[in-house]
Prior knowledge:
Blueprint (H helix, E strand, L loop, with lengths): L5 E6 L10 E2 L2 E2 H13 L7 E4 L10 H11 L6 E3 L7 H7 L6 E2 L9 E5 L2 E6 L21 H11 L5 E5 L11 H4 L5 H9 L5 E6 L6 E5 L2 E5 L5 E2 L12 E2 L4 E8 L2 E8 L1
Parallel strand pairs: 1-4, 4-5, 8-9, 9-10, 10-12
Antiparallel strand pairs: 1-15, 2-3, 6-7, 7-8, 11-12, 13-14, 15-16
Amino acid sequence: MAAEPVRFIHITDTHIGGRDYELFGVATAPRTERLLATIRSLPFEPDFVIHTGDVATDTPQRQHYEVAARLFRDLGCPVHFLPGNHDDAQLMRELLPAAESVSIDPNPALWSFRFETNGHLFVALDARDGDADQGVPDEDIRGRVSDEQLEVLRASFDTADSVTLFVHFPPLDLDSPWHRPAMILRRGRELHAELEILGPRLRAVFFGHVHRSMQVVRSGVLYSAGASPCVQFPAAPVEEEPTYQPEPTVSFSLVSYVDDQVVIKQYRA
């Protein structure tokens, strides 16, 4: 049976700390609150919201996810949370109001999962390096895809007619010098090779980590990054070092799968 239309919200990199926590001088909880208030005010109910990681900030603590849980409570639609390099997956699973999904990761320390909506398969890949010390800030800033995870993805994708992948780290080059050694997913090209095989069955890949909305298309595969509501990084092709743009426009992506099209719209809060 053909998949029905689906519409979802992509958000990422909220970096929530305590209620008064600031990232580069920006209070992250109020800006996340503003983001979610705009989603609540939409004139329709999205099928779900996906957060592609860094829900919390450096060295996440229980209180950070308690603040996040209060912010995301009663959003009005299911919410899925994927861990980023700053997150603690165990605390996320315990405290956040995550929608129902099926865990698929062979590594119990990671939280990859799948779910279906309106006949579409959505897979969230926890690409944090399973061998890194997750308690050390910036120990796992690039992530890594394991052979075991690639095998699980093959099995998950095998019979699906419409597939979407969520991952925190950007799998491919972004034409930005400072991103290459610091942000790009290890073994991202191997992941892309698996995705390329899917052809038109693959709708898109959505990621975070880079804090800025951008799109990449390679061999027919669409990759789309979400923007952080708090702080954004530069992405010009000449910048060798990262700088920070505090308090950017608070925005999110509205994604629609309609009539065999993928439509991505940027909404401002």
